[in-house]
Amino acid sequence: LAKINGARQVLYFEEEMQEVFSRKYKIENELKLSLKENHFYVAYQPKIHLKGKPIELEALIRWQHPVLGMVSPAEFIPIAEESGLIIEIGKFVIDQVCRDLQQLHKTYPHLRIAINLSPKQFLDTELELSILAVIKKYRLDPKFIEFEITETAIMIDPNKAISILNSLKNNGITIAIDDFGTSFSSFNYLKKLPVDTIKIDRSFINGIGENEKDSSLVEGLIDLAHKMNLMITAEGVETKEQLEFLKEKKCDIVQGFYFSRPEKIENIILTLDQLNVHI
Ligand code: C2E
Ligand code: MG
Ligand code: MG
Ligand code: MG
């Protein structure tokens, strides 16, 4: 019996692996087609400065597939990254963001937008030239563009990362470290990295008020950032309690469903107006 069960389990396992592989294969193929057929768009989520004026947005890609429906970036970005398609997808995002920003500046002339970069995009030798070309095409100032990169992307080749970051910063683009605290980052590098902001990962914000260790970690990260002259953002703020805690601990920027979900460009002016933050 054990033998039969064992054989069955192997069969289930193989079937499951088959499914994972074929889904991945399908996604990769559909990504290629969707790039040609424009099934992507960019959604925007406000980032709110607790001390007042400036408003920022984070650009988040959306894939509306005609048959598969909405596919989450959490699923398709890693596949795009592995296959190299992320470079082309990233170019679409950068162009769309700069085009949208040019429009949004008519109403919010100081609005800034942050763009997520995956490791391959960040390490792509053409990144800087291509972002600068697009910024120029839409007659923007690079200071209105921020890149969000993860610690993982930096740690692949820290010295190369430092030189890329320096070069981007010399051109006026600002940098945020995304999902901070989720990998074993080296604090030794943090002090050498030319970054402007660190974004505390959502998982820690989630624990505020529920898990004492999360609350302490968040408080500690806010102090650490300030002692290093960095700005600090909390992502994934969902409750009033979390917001009150972050205000009390002097977090600089907050972002999350409590304020707004990522919205289509058509709704973003209204959303910003409703948030009642005026530049
Ligand atoms: P991320 O950059 O850390 O983005 C934050 C994610 O948290 C977004 O998910 C956002 O919709 C979600 N979020 C925001 N506020 C809340 C909240 O209050 N509660 C909860 N539960 N979630 C919240 P999304 O849009 O699904 O993106 C997932 C990840 O995919 C991003 O994480 C980023 O790493 C990647 N990604 C998204 N757009 C792009 C892109 O254009 N290029 C690249 N390379 N990566 C992207
Ligand atoms: Mg991000
Ligand atoms: Mg994040
Ligand atoms: Mg994330």
UniProtKB/TrEMBL annotation:
Residue ranges of every copy of the EAL domain listed in the record: 24-276
Highest taxon listed in the record's lineage = Bacteria
- Name by which UniProt lists this protein: EAL domain-containing protein
The species is: Anaerobacillus isosaccharinicus
